[in-house]
UniProtKB/TrEMBL annotation, chains A, B:
InterPro entries: FldB/FldC_alpha/beta (IPR010327), YjiM-like (IPR047678). It comes from Thermotomaculum hydrothermale. Belongs to the FldB/FldC dehydratase alpha/beta subunit family. PANTHER family: 2-HYDROXYGLUTARYL-COA DEHYDRATASE, D-COMPONENT-RELATED, DEHYDRATASE SUBUNIT MJ0007-RELATED. This is 2-hydroxyglutaryl-CoA dehydratase subunit D.
Amino acid sequence: MILGGYMSEKYVDIYKKLDMDIEKHSELMSALFQLFSDVFLTQKNRPENIKYFDWLMSEIHGKRIEELMEFKDKNKPLVGTFCIFIPEEIVVASGGACYGLCGGAQFSIPDAERDLPRNICPLIKSAYGFKVQRTCPYTQISNFIYGETTCEAKKKTWEILNDLHPTHVMHIPHMKGKREKDLWREEIYEFKNHIEEIVGKELTFEELKKGVEIINKKREALQRLDYLRSTKPDIVPISGLDSLLVTQISFYDDPERFSDKVFELCDELEERIDKGISVCESDTPRIMVIGTPMAPPNWKLHQVVETTGGIVINEEACIGHRYFKDNIDLDGVESVEDIIERMLERYMKIDCACFTPNDERIDKIIKMYREKKADGIIYYTLSFCHTYNVESKKVIDRLKEEKIPVLKIESDYSAEDVGQIKTRVEAFLESIRFKKSFKAKR
Amino acid sequence: MILGGYMSEKYVDIYKKLDMDIEKHSELMSALFQLFSDVFLTQKNRPENIKYFDWLMSEIHGKRIEELMEFKDKNKPLVGTFCIFIPEEIVVASGGACYGLCGGAQFSIPDAERDLPRNICPLIKSAYGFKVQRTCPYTQISNFIYGETTCEAKKKTWEILNDLHPTHVMHIPHMKGKREKDLWREEIYEFKNHIEEIVGKELTFEELKKGVEIINKKREALQRLDYLRSTKPDIVPISGLDSLLVTQISFYDDPERFSDKVFELCDELEERIDKGISVCESDTPRIMVIGTPMAPPNWKLHQVVETTGGIVINEEACIGHRYFKDNIDLDGVESVEDIIERMLERYMKIDCACFTPNDERIDKIIKMYREKKADGIIYYTLSFCHTYNVESKKVIDRLKEEKIPVLKIESDYSAEDVGQIKTRVEAFLESIRFKKSFKAKR
């Protein structure tokens, strides 16, 4: 497999148009593809249909950017985001594209730390650094960056980022009562207005409905994958790393093509289950990872777990289950207002730790743990993410009450703590294995 | 001066009633009073009328708690807070008392770190630790702790704290548009309802007006002190430490008595100015401290500045100018609704870094700097306070544009970094002195 056409002339032309730092970008891509090869292509027994996703990762700054340039040429909105609170259905309804921005690499952090404190979340620093470096084509090509108020370090960073690139900040309230719903509804309409200004027309009912249908289908595809990877207690047909890759790609691929490809992959996974093909032994400790999102190329924890004898069967995270768990109910909608109302309802179900209280998240985690017959939970939090970090106390207390094995890991994007994490994960998996063998004997 | 009657029998009786850990509390108080003696009583040339405030500090867990017990016996609401967004006028209108809770000491932090992450703001950990330890009588005596959503570590900590003590969380939105105003108004009414439930009656227009008048007067007293300490470019009639002490005490003293005492102090300061009595040489570098609040006994930075040859002439902080800068305009109010509306307007002027954007804060800082003829600014932020920390970039960029000398210091409550801070402050003051002498020569 040839990784990355990012050095080909036609892409370099695009990078030039997007005012990118081409030399620095080459450095980034070469490091990225080396890492991708090391982490993903060394895995054994991968499903055949994962190839599409490998290819799309290799074309993350290639073919996909070329496609987005066509949107740009047709004056269709291109919106980059770092948060799943973005009503992407509206962007898609307008004929535009919505995608997650680069924010998972250590590479850009030193450039961010000239402007931002060192002790904030690495995702924010990484993302901001990519803008400073001009090495992320998704940022460069976007009409605006979508910001929100879910976390305070992001909220304050938009103000600084706005000097480098236009931002649209949506006020996400931190409770879920009627007054917050009223506020939020107005924010959705304002976002819709912004998109309509770009395309120069009001979105019709049909367009909006179509936008919702496309994203609903994408979420359904991801729900099916989530189900298949963990439905059998003794067969796991796809690795956690590969599943994470698919979810990460859901944030930048064309949603319709993506859904088709995920359904194809799922068909294969069903066949694998029927044939008893698993990527791991049947007694492998099944781990749920819960907490903060892992933006590519943040594959650190999954790699550690899966090279230490465990298997990740779920991500309860924004790049994960939290993103695709709820669809927008279109049943009986008759007007634009109806759709916006349903959209509001759907987005209010997101159980981000920015909300207070957020107890529904805890109930959900325990339910998922039982359903997926997991053996243990790793509570993963990015360094300095106060909301998920403080919330871990309540979550972990409840898990302990339920006698669910849990390990908390706080980490950033540096490679420095890999050894330490590996040691802790090893001990955790060992204790789970001990329990499993003890149960099996009884 | 005898520091602290906290060991006397009558107070110990109260501590017992409040279910406090009496032994641990004695440890705390003995450390506190030693520190207070070392920092405050060693100062020279203090105004005579500071004695009242010394006394009130010595009675922080003595006489003042005895007074609050009388409120409790009369079923008057006692509300503890960590934020100036609390509409304290409503509590005072009901005949109750509103006060800041202990949250400035390293003493309680180890006990908090069993439940909370190490890498959140020390104020939150300290405050939470006091509840765990049962060493803060203000917390123990309160009907409820007032929480809010201004910062995420606090917001999430209320959920945990609520298991140990009742909390009332007010949703403070992070923008200042009409929809946020609508949300906030409802929050104020809900807070008022809560207070009314405690007293068992609706608050009348007259009561509310009286409550506002009492707090307005307190703010006027503090405004006058703020003016007097910095009005003359060559005479500073009171140290920064003593002024900070007065502001800190404004958060727990009886507001009417406090105002009278501050006015008495101010009369003396005016006399001092007339007589040319200053606590420092006329060429002493005049420092404005801007940023996060300093809860007692967090006197670290002021002590460093004032024992290193500088003088602090202002605190642009929540325990400082941000708290008292705006009064509630009662002109023409005719109903309870009118008062709430004016209250809303006043509280919306708070330029906390939780807001996005918050540019009015920057303009204000520069205006204050000019008016107070300051020589330099120290941007102070508590460790891991993302909002003030990220906002520092915009503030400092603007200050540099305006050629205002600025030093940023991030610190917690430990004594470990005092030496390092001293070195940095020394160099900063030296550079200011050099500039001043250069200007004087020209």
